[in-house]
Amino acid sequence: MAQQYGIVISQGRVADRTDGALRGAHAAGTSLGEYLGRTPVVVGAPSPSVVDDWSEALPAARETLEALRSALRDVLDAGDTPLLVTNTCAASLGTLPTVAKRHPEAVVLWIDAHGDFNTPETTESGYLGGMVLAAACGLWESGHGSGLNPEQVIVVGGRDIDPAEAELLSRAGAHVLAPAESTPERVAELVAGREVWIHVDWDVLEPGYIPAAYRVEGGLRPHQISDIFAALRDQVRGVELAEFEYGDTDVPANVSVELILETFQALLR
Predict the structure, then answer these.
(1) What range does the record give for the signal peptide (predicted)?
(2) Number of helices (H) and strands (E), helices first, in the chain?
(3) How buried is 13 (Cβ within 10 angstroms: 0-12 exposed, 13-18 middle, 19+ buried)?
């Protein structure tokens, strides 16, 4: 029986420092809904980007994060597989604690150029999106819950990780795979047949495919993400797609949306 995806689109600002990711989430989520024949649930309303500290961005995002958590629970209660199309990785502050509760044995694949494992004590940028995974693992209190076991976290394609953040990841027991190590075979070996929750920040890709706010050289290619998806499709219990920067002049938006659709198709049985 084919998976039935319940689509949630995040449209409320969650620490956005650029304006393009909200537009990107709407464009990609709408197209995915049309492709799958499902009407997405839209959470929040756009507001202008601000370069603010996590201590300001976190309370400002409370309403959106609570609404995302509620929407995710609704999808799970309906027996569907969640497909969340979000603006920033920080939106996962509202989802990962629910994932930890509903699927406690699931491995979280954090497919991202960054570890997002900083805390208020280690962050150099003050960016909330760089702290989300650490919060979900209980290293600091976000006010939105935790419960995620860091030993069940695999950072795939990680290559721009702060030294203090790398130490926290190592100490917590999370796995970090550099791009060269991020093969379907290695990922499947670490997953070891368990359920999987997939999070993708499109900056994991080599720049030039799907625009993201942060460009980090030496990334994966889209087909490599598709191959990982295909290797795990029967184990996937939810998907988050984040940080598509709509409007980047180097890549036409419609091309990026089509590439997101093509990559996602590898999850379909």
Answers:
(1) none
(2) 9, 8
(3) buried
What φ, ψ does residue 187 adopt, rounded to 5°?
A: -65, -45
Q: Which two tokens stand for residue 205?
A: 């890709």
**Phi, psi (5° rounding) for residue 20?**
-75, -25
Q: What is the mean pLDDT of residues 149-159?
A: 98
Do 158 and 168 touch, CB atoms closer than 8 A?
no
C-alpha distances in Å from residue 59, one per residue of 23, 53, 75, 204, 246 = 22, 11, 25, 28, 26
pLDDT band at 173 (very low <50, low <70, confident <90, very high): very high
State the pLDDT at residue 250: 76
- CATH numbers and ranges of domains, the chain: 5-267 (3.40.800.10)
Cβ distance 91 to 10 under 8 Å? yes
What Cα–Cα distance (Å) separates residue 242 from each residue in 88, 100, 120, 161? 6, 19, 22, 18
